[in-house]
């Protein structure tokens, strides 16, 4: 936290600057922008450390409360095109918190077993346990994004999924999970640079998938699918945040702030002892 006499580098809280609204137009998103943030890369890097430490403290309280009967949890949903930086977000933001308290899941092409089930089956299995910080690298939204763009099921099927997802998320929220949905936007040019880097660097070859190049030709279709996702699933109980991702230092501090906000709103205290504190001090002194 900035000290009282320091001016916050945020002109507006990230939750306000990034919240999707009815007027959000995917085609107008500037992936280079740094909404609400007035500093640059250097300050961003410094803040990531400071706020990461603060986030870690909040998460530990969530975990501690989960251990003593509190059913609540937080779920971060990361959705974005290839190279948007989902993996880096997990490493650099979630990387600040104790791994014991994190329930991480990533969702790729459904396995043969997953294909035999309803598309929400594999998602339900990975929802965060009480006291945990859940992170989804891709999610059920793939079933209205890649599935829609590639016609993997007919329109009559995918078009019903928006309402179904809203209902699904309503139940998750009602059971005590705060959902933070982050739509990560990288520009077509920046994606090209990042894919080129994957080809140049042997340590990044494993991330390169030849089919990612073909997806670039479908960019307008993906934009349309992302627009429909934002239009139809941006509920007050599970809101979308639109995060420009060309500047990784920005997207990381921004998502860090979104998580901090979600955890602060839980108003978590350290759990009270379930034993007689004074008695235990005496017992220990004599042991
Ligand atoms: P990556 O995140 O790079 O490991 O890639 C995972 C791939 O799985 C992406 O190309 C996704 O679009 C794809 N994928 C994820 N969920 C689904 C789904 N439900 N149906 C088809 N493809 C999917
Ligand atoms: Mg990939």
The largest β sheet comes out as: 5 strands, parallel
CATH hierarchy: architecture: 3-Layer(aba) Sandwich
Low-confidence stretches: none
Order of the strands making up the biggest sheet: 2-3-1-4-5
CATH topology call = Rossmann fold
Explain the overall architecture.
The mean pLDDT is 96. It is built from 13 helices and five strands. It is of the alpha/beta class. The protein has a five-stranded parallel β-sheet with strand order 2-3-1-4-5, sandwiched between helices. The protein is globular and about 75 Å long. It has helices at 14-18, 41-67, 86-92, 112-115, 121-124, 146-149, 155-158, 161-174, 188-200, 211-216, 219-233, 248-265, 277-286, and strands spanning 73-80, 102-106, 133-137, 177-185, 240-244. The N and C termini lie far apart (42 Å). Helix 2 packs parallel to helix 12. The protein has a single domain (14-286), classed as 3-Layer(aba) Sandwich (Rossmann fold). Residues 82, 209, 212 line the site of magnesium ion.
